[in-house]
Amino acid sequence: MPHNHEELLKHVSADMPSDELLQDLGDLFKVFGDTTRIKIMYALYEDEMCVCAIADLLKMTQSAISHQLKVLKAANLVASRREGKTIYYRLADEHVKSIIGQGYEHITE
Amino acid sequence: MPHNHEELLKHVSADMPSDELLQDLGDLFKVFGDTTRIKIMYALYEDEMCVCAIADLLKMTQSAISHQLKVLKAANLVASRREGKTIYYRLADEHVKSIIGQGYEHITE
DNA sequence: TCAACATATGAACGATTGCTCATATGTTCA
DNA sequence: TGAACATATGAGCAATCGTTCATATGTTGA
User: Which pLDDT tens digits describe chain B residue by residue (109 residues)?
Assistant: First the structure.
């Protein structure tokens, strides 16, 4: 007979967040899971930037950057403001820095 | 003439980590970017668990869990020990909890 | 109002990902 | 040693992802 985990499972599943929240968590981290988006967030670490400056910095097309900014914005990781023709993006809150910071610590150990 | 960001770019790119590190960061977060793996990490939050207990808990096949544990282990997010036929997995370090914790805070605001 | 600029968006395509299925490896006990 | 159990692994397939290309939207100044 395969071994029995009934007790353990009862305990652990009681402490598990809802499937919906776990799905949202995965979706959030998926946004961090791409080098281009990580670079964009790092670029915005200190100051806001317009789309074409980010494109110049990363040597990528304006379109590619724009698509990724949309993803970042949908996840509430960046915010933007318009100034004439230009749109400036900035990090939306401190979580971005602390999440990246923790990741940084993990890989540089 | 499109507008000029030379000064800004010089400053920002000086503060950017290496491409290799940014790639590693993206790869790390990619591992967090899947609901199954998030669930596994949550299951291990309090205590170690064997593979079949995790499979039972998540109602998934042993094979699927085993594949994902391999990904988690390659990223140094979980560690394992053998006890007879059974292999117990546990979280590898505190970064897992703090990264998930920061993500949790971000989405529950 | 129209040309130039800045950004956004939709379709399409190649690459990556997560699961399943079949099977292999490793361990215990009779 | 061989049957039963626990886990790992490789191939294959559908689904998702990130980019490009073409084009649309929005803003300014002449």
Answer: 467 788 889 999 999 999 999 999 999 999 999 999 999 999 999 999 999 999 999 999 999 999 999 999 999 999 999 999 999 999 999 999 999 999 999 999 8
Angle at A106 between CA A100 and CA A109, to 5 degrees: 135
Q: Mind giving me the DSSP string for B24-69?
A: HHHHHHHHHS-HHHHHHHHHTTTS-EEHHHHHHHHT--HHHHHHHH
The answer to whether A108 faces chain B, any CB pair under 8 Å, is yes
Helical pair B94-107 and B19-32, crossing angle rounded to 10 deg:
70
A26 φψ region: left (φ > 0), alpha (ψ -120 to 50), beta (else): alpha
CA A32 to chain centre: 4
Question: Within its chain, how far is the Cα of B103 from the centroid?
Answer: 11
State the pTM of this model: 0.94
HSE at residue B107, side-chain half, CA atoms within 13 A, is 19
Give residues 46 to 65 of A whose Cβ lies within 8 Å of B: 46-47, 49-50, 52-53, 56-57
Compute the half-sphere exposure of residue A2: CA atoms within 13 Å on the CB side of its CA. 9
Which residue from A minimizes the CA distance to B98? A102
